[in-house]
Amino acid sequence: MASSHFLCHSPIFHPVPNIIENRSLSSFRSHGSSFFDSKSRNQRTPFVRLMVSARKQVEIVYNPDERINKLADEVDKEAAPVSRLTLFSPCKINVFLRITNKREDGFHDLASLFHVISLGDVIKFSLSPSKAQDRLSTNVPGVPLDDRNLIIKALNLYRKKTGSNNFFWIHLDKKVPTGAGLGGGSSNAATALWAANQFNDFLATEKELQEWSSEIGSDVPFFFSQGAAYCTGRGEVVQNIPPPLPLDLPMVLIKPQQACSTAEVYKRLQLDRTSKADPVTLLEKISRNGISQDVCINDLEPPAFEVLPSLKRLKQRVLVASRGQYGAVFMSGSGSTIVGIGSPDPPQFVYDDDEYKDVFLSEANFLTREENNWYTEPASRSACGSSSHFSQSIE
Q1: Buried b (16+ CB within 10 A) or exposed e, 62-78
Q2: pTM value?
Q3: Is 92 annotated in the active site?
Q4: Which of 134, 219, 299, 345 is the catalytic position?
Q5: What are the residues facing 123 on neighbouring strands?
Q6: Is there a catalytic annotation at residue 56?
Q7: How far is it, in rounded angstroms, from Cα 381 to Cα 87?
């Protein structure tokens, strides 16, 4: 879905192979770490650092490809079967999310319709000549690059389970915002497990990867589904289902700059105030009748709105302004992304109101994958106003 009619106001930026010189600083508008055209909000100018002098401005661009290729070339000399791999790492939304019980271990049981969507990151893997450690880089500041990152956790887990001694150089091109309820980190972990298995000539089955992945996080096993699943337990019990909604059904994602702490949201959850709707009935209604506001229930919305009152106001404003534009408006996961299903266009107030000048915006649609293949990025996709054209590739 190609589109350039709206933009991302998030601290996400993407390296680009160009140099900007002699441009007036007034032609840009700063949002976090990105610059945007202040006259037209439908174009994005990504950058890494802008150096300003009296005579000119020069954009300094970091391009990881050269380092990736050098490392891979060293491995190529050893005739490795796969030396480089680029994978799409999509995120998810919860079409409905029921919290059904609090467990003795302190976690909560849930019942939810998870669905992969077309917004995602791109991860480049290269076999490293080193047999000592992985090296991770990213285009986003503040992302941990050590074993706090779920990508490194996943690679460590794979080596532990299989005895593999392969280490990697990884570059994460981050487009999915963090603290959004979209499962971006969980998807990265699942993608890393899949990649490691490719490099190791399929030492593990897909089912084994899914089972192991629950040790990383409750949402990770879902990404080993075919893209649509009814998830129970802590989320790690994954039941594949046929896609209940048209894959080309458009949606818009609106995430304010503030994030919701998942721990704080669950801390404020009151089970006696949750919906009483039967999740299986919700699933049947969606499969039979499609999207409607009454089936897109998220039991985490009330506590999330207590944590972040402005999020409740955002959802209400989207509902009022939509005038039937969206079949349903709801929060994904534990927040803070508000999803409008039925149109890729955000309501006009998001552009006009200064309160929302820093929100993240993206259109998306539902996505699935074929068995024994990983997710493929749509040929034309809009994420934060960009139109990168990556796809799964093996060299």
Answers
A1: eebeeebeebbebbeee
A2: 0.79
A3: yes
A4: 219
A5: 87, 172
A6: no
A7: 15
